[in-house]
Amino acid sequence: MTAAPLRFVFDPTGAELDAARACEADVFLETYGNTSEQFADEYGPYDDSTGFMTVLEGDGHAVATARFIAPGPAGLKTLNDIGRAPWEVDGERSARSAGVDIDRTWDIATIAVRRGEGRGGLCAAALYHGIITASYANDVDFIVMIMDAHARRLLSSLSMQTQTLPGTFTAEYLGSPESTPLWGHIHRAMEQQRQESPDAYRLIFQGIGLDGIALPTDWTWHRRGVAESAGSR
Fold it and tell me: Which helix (H) or strand (E) holds 62?
């Protein structure tokens, strides 16, 4: 039986945004025990600077979702959070010491793929392709994130290299026993991937091999926050 075709939506709204958020909530509750109340506390302050991308089945059910946060009045969550225990470092100073231009940075806040519905890694690869493509389209040069060890190993297997933010280390974070604050320069990372792993480059950067997923033609982010969603918390 052939799997149903999938559709990648960048910057979803309305019911598609609700589906994306439901996917994120379900995966993070199952994987890390994060409740809706915790999500509201942790991510609510960044709503006006938050965007989503999601992979949907034909009936609108979301099987994979990523949340990103752009610079705004609340700052970037990763840089704020490393000011808390156990790291307790100045996030902006840490990022700038690594050469990160914070004004041209997206915080990759969450990546969620429903267990057993990710088409053997295809949906995760689609999200990484979306993050890279959208970054180029919206003049974003850097990413920061606090990433679980399992997800970081997947990135490394695709030759997508990241660096630890200065002054930080691997520690427990929001239910993940091993997470590391990271930064990456998108253009340099893609050039390194092109040289070291051409097959991964074709998949992640060029989108070659994302068969069965209809990709967007417009990757422009319309910065409007997520409060308009009927299901927003």
Answer: strand 62-69
Question: 143-194: per-residue pLDDT in tens?
Answer: 999 999 999 988 888 888 899 999 999 999 999 999 999 999 999 999 999 9
Q: How far apart are CA 167 and CA 162, in angstroms?
A: 15
pLDDT digit string, tens, across residues 184-197: 999 999 999 999 99
Which pTM does this prediction carry? 0.93
Nearest Cα neighbor of 98 from 157, 159, 143, 138 is: 143
Contact 202, 211 (CB under 8 A): no
Residues 6+ apart with CB under 8 A from 79: 91, 92, 94, 95, 102, 107, 144
The CA-based diameter of the chain, rounded to the nearest angstrom, is 53
Torsion, CA 229, CA 217, CA 204, CA 20, rounded to 10? 10
CA pair distance 118, 225, nearest whole angstrom? 27
Kind plus residue range of the DSSP H or E element containing 136 = helix 122-137
Which residues make Cβ contacts (< 8 Å) with residue 82, sequence separation at least 6? 88, 89, 91, 94, 146, 165, 167, 168, 181
How many C-beta neighbours within 10 Å does residue 93 have? 13
13-58 confidence digits (pLDDT tens): 999 999 999 999 999 999 999 999 999 999 999 999 999 999 999 9
Distance CA 159, CA 49 (A): 29
For residues 9 and 151, is the Cβ–Cβ distance under 8 A?
no
Q: Are strands 213-214 and 6-10 parallel, antiparallel or unpaired?
A: parallel
